[in-house]
Design goal:
Elements lengths: L9 E3 L3 E6 L2 E6 L2 H6 L3 E4 L3 E5 L5 E5 L6 E5 L7 E8 L9 E9 L2 E7 L9 H4 L3 E6 L4 H7 L5 E2 L11 E8 L2 E6 L7 E4 L8 E6 L5 E8 L1
Antiparallel strand pairs: 1-17, 2-3, 4-7, 5-6, 6-17, 7-16, 8-13, 8-17, 9-10, 9-16, 10-11, 11-12, 13-14, 14-15
Pfam families: 3keto-disac_hyd
Keywords: Signal
GO molecular function: hydrolase activity
C-alpha cells in the first residue's frame, strides 16, 4: 500500500508537528503561532488564529466571513490515506459548516467533507439527514448534489454528537472511495465515491458560508 504525500506521518497536536522541508521529513516541538505567521498554515478567505477552547486548550480558529474559506496546510500533499482531526462548530442554524478540504488544486477546486452541527440533533428527520456532506468543487457543490442525488452525498451522524462540543472525524480516502467515521464509530456515517476524480494534493481545514470553526489534533497517514 502506498500513500502519495510528502510526509509519511503528519501530526499537529498544536505544539508537536512533523512536516516537510525541501522534501525531508522533520519532527519536533513547533510553536503553531510561528507556523501561522510563517504561512505554513495559509488562510483563503479566512483569518487563521490561535484560541483557547475548553478541553482542547489551544486550537486553530477560522473566523466567520461570507463565502467558504480554507486554511491550507502548505507543506503537506495528500492523495490517499487517512486524515483524522478534532473539530468544533456551533448550534446555530445555517451558520456552522466545518470540515476538511482535500485533493485541492487551488482555492476553488477541491473535494471536501464537512458537517452541519446544527442538524445533528434536529427534531426534523430531513435536517438530520443533512448532517455530514461530501462535495467536489467547482462542479459538484451541495445544491446540485441535493437536487440531483437526493441524500446520497449527505447523511445523518449516528449517534449524533453534541452540536456545541468537540467531536472527532476520521476520513478514509482509498480507491476513489471516501468514508467518514465520527467519534470512533466503527460504522461510517457517510460512504461515497469521488465524483470529479480531482488530482490535486492540497489539504486544509474548511468552513462554509458565514461560518467559523475550531480545529485541533490533525493527523495524516
Amino acid at each position: 500500500m502506498s500513500f502519495s504525500f510528502i510526509l509519511k506521518n503528519l501530526v499537529i497536536p498544536l505544539t508537536a508537528c512533523i512536516w516537510s522541508v525541501n522534501g525531508f521529513a522533520q519532527q519536533g516541538e513547533v510553536d503553531l503561532a510561528k507556523l501561522i505567521v510563517g504561512k505554513t498554515i495559509k488562510g483563503h478567505n479566512r483569518d487563521v488564529s490561535l484560541v483557547t477552547s475548553g478541553t482542547k486548550g489551544t486550537c486553530v480558529h477560522l473566523n466567520e466571513k461570507p463565502g467558504s474559506g480554507v486554511a491550507w496546510l502548505e507543506e503537506v500533499e495528500f492523495k490517499e490515506g487517512v486524515i483524522e482531526f478534532d473539530v468544533k462548530g456551533r448550534n446555530v442554524v445555517q451558520k456552522s459548516f466545518v470540515g476538511i478540504a482535500f485533493h485541492g488544486s487551488n482555492d476553488s477546486t477541491y473535494d471536501a467533507v464537512y458537517f452541519r452541527p446544527f442538524n445533528f440533533k434536529s427534531l426534523e428527520e430531513e435536517r438530520r439527514n443533512h448532517s455530514v456532506q461530501y462535495i467536489s468543487l467547482p462542479k459538484f457543490d451541495w445544491p446540485k448534489l441535493r437536487s440531483e442525488f437526493h441524500n446520497q452525498y449527505e447523511k445523518p451522524v449516528n449517534p449524533a454528537p453534541d452540536p456545541e462540543e468537540w467531536f472527532h472525524c476520521r476520513l478514509v480516502v482509498k480507491n476513489q472511495e471516501v468514508n467518514v467515521f465520527v467519534n470512533g464509530n466503527i460504522s461510517p456515517s457517510l460512504t461515497v465515491k469521488q465524483l470529479a476524480g480531482l488530482k490535486g494534493s492540497k489539504v486544509g481545514f474548511w468552513v462554509g458560508h458565514a461560518s467559523d470553526g475550531d480545529f485541533a489534533n490533525i493527523s495524516i497517514k
